[in-house]
Amino acid sequence: MKRQTAHPCPLPALVVAAACVVVSLCRAAEQVTTNAAVPPRAATVLTTAEQVHQLSRETAALGLPAVLRGVVTCSLPDSGGLVLQDATRGIYVDQAAALLPEAPRIGDLLEVEGVTDPGQFAPQVHARRLTRLGQGELPTPAHPTWDQLINGSFDTQFVEMEGIITDVRADSVVLLTHGGKLKANLFNAIGPSNRVALASLEDSRVRLRGCLFAMWDAQTHQVRVGEITMYYPILSVSEPAPNDVFALPRKRASELRLFDPQASALQRARVSGQVVHEHEGEFFVMDGTNGFRFIPKGVTSFAAGDLVEVVGFPSLTGPCPILREAVARTTGAAELPKATPLDPEDFFRPGYDARRVRIDAVLQGLSADQRTLELQSGLQRFLARLTGAGRHHPPRPAPLAEQAANALGIPVGSRLELTGVYAGRGGNPATGGEIGSFELLVDSPADILVLARPPFWTLPRLLILVGALVAVLMLALFWIRLLHHEVQTRTAQLQVEVREREHAEQQRALATERSRIARDLHDDLGSSLTEITLLATAGPGQEVTSQEASERLETIAGKSRTMVHALDEIVWAADPERDTVSSVARYLASYAEEYLAGLRVACRVQIPQAFPERVVSGEVRHGLFLAVKEALSNAVRHGHATEVVFRLRLAGERIEISIRDNGAGFDLDSHPTGHGLLNLRSRLEGVRGRCDIQSSPGSGTTVVLELPLNSHPAKT
Fold first, then answer.
1. Which of 59, 69, 167, 482 could, after both became Cys, cross-link 55 (CB 3.0–4.6 A)?
2. Are the C-beta atoms of residues 164 and 175 closer than 8 Å to each other?
3. Is the CB of residue 236 less than 8 Å from the CB of residue 206?
4. Residue 277: strand pairing partners
């Protein structure tokens, strides 16, 4: 519902209006979030300017009812609005001039009834009714801080500011305040005819009192930093501009931080010193062993070495004092002071700011314009800038850092001695802040001395070498991987071939063993069985006498025993359970005893008590047995021995069998080699053994048989 602006509403209408507002608030609460300072729903009418200002733009757009009472601090007839300030703060009220017969004046006490509006910058009140209550008193002005001046929080507040007028422009002045420079737009304060009088106040210390309006961007709603507006301000001069600024008492740079009851950011100070550098309009001056900076008010030209007097407004928030809006004059010239050596542990001490220093450092890089050097001293990195003579060299294309350094004649990695002015950043003594970084301002390339050229193995070259080695290593790893894969493949193929060959060898050995067994059965048993058959069978028409039958039976019995022994030999040679050294030794010893006992020849057997667990294949056992059998047969048949010594011993990985008889012997040199000796050697060589025969006439014969043992342990 809209209120009547000309007459007050009756009580029932107010009740209905209040009910409608409550319903609107309940519905809007589901869509918007109001500020914590909004009064409870039960209190539907806003009564202070602070309550209106605390509303968010969304809540203010709901048109909440407001009834405010306060003093007019600013009236804008052109827009029809005014600023009303109560005990809490000021608030802008639009559509105010049309509701009163006369335009409101500054100091009027008014009561405003209306609704909230989001406004273009901050919440405001859209007036529905105005009541003039009489003449009021202007509120006590607030003294905003620099932060409050630039963040817009004191918009529409009645304030008082103090500063130095440093510049006068059309309808505005530039004030140097305690926090910094501020542009103040002054409207309807002084007419065009009085601008000359305002200009006469330049360099004066003044106070501005009035209603402050923040300057803001209409699209982004962001505050313009460093600019405000005042309508109808009251301007008073606190201190007129000095006739001669150099008439002030002179101070040392070190005294600017000492106690002085008259000192402030708006109180000029006069300091003398020697200019040591200029960079971007800021001059660095040394006063003995102390340094300070000054920023001139206008265009000023001083050279390094000039002796100057400087008058300005001191700022003590940096690493060294800075005189702002300074006026300087030359008093002479002198040689520059000697540079102080600076170690890395002293890099961030504020006492070196604005002083000439000398630093030893290693060049890490150079900018494309060859005016900025990146340096390292110890573990600290910093920049050095060539800002003096020689800075007007023609620019070069942007090369690599090392190429740029070579173009200047200083290769990257060189050890340099640089002389320049220390320019720190940060380091506010008031807040206890330390210098965060610094730059060395070098006047000319002549202030750079090359102490040592870089070693051959610079970091880029080392990285290139490491990269090449890594590439070679990767290629080698890749090649090794391929070789490993090929080796694995070839190994698998060889394993298959070995298994196939082993299988073929086993089959061949098995076939050979079968052939041998078949041959032995045929040679030893077959001929004996044939002979037994002939003995047991009489020819056709023949009669066998009892004596002849008895003789044949004895012969058959002997042949049978021989066949049993031969069969036992064949079975022993083929039995895999007998593939041990102990079995071979015991069997051969037993055979020698039985064989010689049947021929009534004495036999002495010498064998060890224990034997190693080694495998002796059937083929080897058979060959060894035939060799022993041949040696025993030769000792009895050819040597006519009456005693044979059979000795078996182990010599390392070889088995040695010695058969020594006491027979007739023979001369090895004159005796022709018979088939028996050849058979012995051939049998031993067939199983990788060796046969050694020692004999002499009348001294018997010794046959030594040596055979290597299998390297594989015996099967259990």
1. 59
2. yes
3. yes
4. 284
The two three-digit tokens of residue 76, written as one number: 């804008």
Q: Which amino acid is at 91?
A: I
Q: Contact, 75 vs 141, CB < 8 A?
A: no
The single residue listed with the structure tokens 């006739």 is: 243
Which residues is 101 bridged to in the sheet? none
Backbone angles phi, psi at 443, to 5 degrees: -75, -40
CA 473 from chain centre, in angstroms, equals: 23
**Positions of the chain with pLDDT lower than 70, given as ranges:** 1-43, 188-197, 388-408, 429-433, 510, 513-514, 516-528, 531, 534-544, 561-562, 565-566, 568-571, 573-578, 670-676, 710-716
- Residues 483 and 129: their CA atoms lie apart, in Å, by 99
Helix (H) or strand (E) holding 332: strand 322-333
Are the beta carbons of 101 and 131 closer than 8 angstroms?
no
The predicted structure's pLDDT at residue 400: 41
Strand, coil or helix: 62: coil
Q: Which residue has the tokens 């070098």?
A: 442
Specify burial of residue 61 (Cβ count, 10 A radius: 0-12, 13-18, 19+). middle
pLDDT score recorded for residue 538: 61
8 Å CB contact between 279 and 315: no
Instruction: Please name the residue ranges forming H helices in 575-662.
Output: 581-598, 618-637
Q: What's the token pair of residue 136?
A: 């009021």
CA angle 61, 67, 73 (to 5 degrees): 95
Structure tokens of 554?
Answer: 């004895």
Burial code (b: 16+ CB inside 10 Å, e: under 16) for 578-612 equals: bbbbbbbbbbbbebbeebbeeeebebebebeeebe
CA–CA gap between residue 139 and residue 73 (Å, rounded):
8
Cα 589 to Cα 583: distance, rounded to the nearest angstrom = 10
Nearest alpha carbon to residue 49 among 37, 36, 31: 37
Neighbouring C-beta atoms of residue 236, cutoff 10 Å: 10
For residue 557, how many C-alpha atoms fall within 13 Å in the half-sphere facing its CB? 6
Helices 546-574 and 527-536, axial angle in degrees (round to 10): 160
The C-alpha atoms of residue 366 and residue 407 are separated, in whole angstroms, by 10
pTM of the prediction?
0.56
Which long-range contacts does 668-671 make (Cβ < 8 Å, 24+ apart)? 668/693, 668/694, 668/695, 668/696
What pLDDT, in 10s, does the model give residues 515-561?
766 666 666 666 667 767 766 666 666 666 777 777 777 777 777 76
342: three-class secondary structure by DSSP: coil
Compute the Cα dihedral for 500, 716, 713, 647 and give only its sign. negative
The sign of the CA dihedral 544, 550, 551, 555 is positive
For residue 472, give both structure tokens. Answer: 């070679």
Determine which helix (DSSP H) or strand (DSSP E) holds 649, and give its type and residue range: strand 643-651
Cα–Cα dist 660/640, whole Å: 12
Q: Which of 445, 456, 400 is nearest to 420 (CA)?
A: 445
Closest CA to 358 of 335, 376, 340, 370: 340
H or E element that contains 572: helix 546-574
pLDDT value for 440 = 94
pLDDT, position 35: 38
